[in-house]
Amino acid sequence: MLALDLDGTLLNSAMRMSDTNAEALKTAAERGVSVVLATSRWYALAKRTADRLGLTTPIVCSNGAEVREIDGGELLHLPLDAEAAREVVTWGDDHGWEMFTTVGHSTYMQMRPGIIPEKLPGGLKVADRHSEHLSEGAPVCVQIWQQAAVQEVAERFAPKYDGRARFSFNTPVGQPHYVVLTHPDAEKAKALELVREKLGIAQEETIAMGDSESDIEMLRWAGLGIAMRNSPDAVKKEALHIAPSNDEDGVAWAAIKFLL
User: Fold this and answer.
1) pTM
2) Parent domain of 71
3) What is the CATH number of the domain that holds 151?
4) CA dihedral (58, 194, 123, 112) positive or negative
5) Mean pLDDT lowest for which of 128-132, 142-146, 170-174?
6) pLDDT category of residue 114 using cuts at 50, 70 and 90
7) How many separate domains does the chain show?
């Protein structure tokens, strides 16, 4: 089983999957490798990449708060503490934070220049105030971007909701810092263990690749953990191998070296 993060790992700096990476993964899948996407992003966005690769394996999304079959069926659903979600999201609304808030099957974002709402990926919607949509279903995940907002979350909310929510702080190289707010038990490694058991694959036959602090536990969990060259040093220290960067087709490099 090959578990792959998306942003900063499978996707390049332009947020696209290269043909080289796609071809290597398709070849690996044809040879019996179960390719599993494990991302902090929401299901509908991850599914676009899964569909391009022709994957039928479950998808780990929302930083491990959800595991869904390719058709959307839920294998795991860990809702976010409602009070924590409402307080953080309302504060973010009031202060104009760049946020993505996943509620049920929808993910909300603020309007940006040049955005055409009708052309957004499936499940992604524009909302002036995310907090007004929290009653539509169980909130699952809140992503908050940019260093000043992330720092405020760390100081204002992480101590208050310690034990009631997981705050996963990430410092990607050359990209904005972000924090992911989820259920305290949401974790990519735990979600991948569920997928591994479902697929009947031994843990020593698993590979995980990632680039951010949210990926550290799955790098430790996997039989072989591989960090991207564009990872922070804290992530690289937890990996057995360092792959070329996400702009250098590092996923293809790993697939060829270890699987093909």
Assistant:
1) 0.95
2) 2-77+186-258
3) 3.30.1240.10
4) negative
5) 170-174
6) confident
7) 2
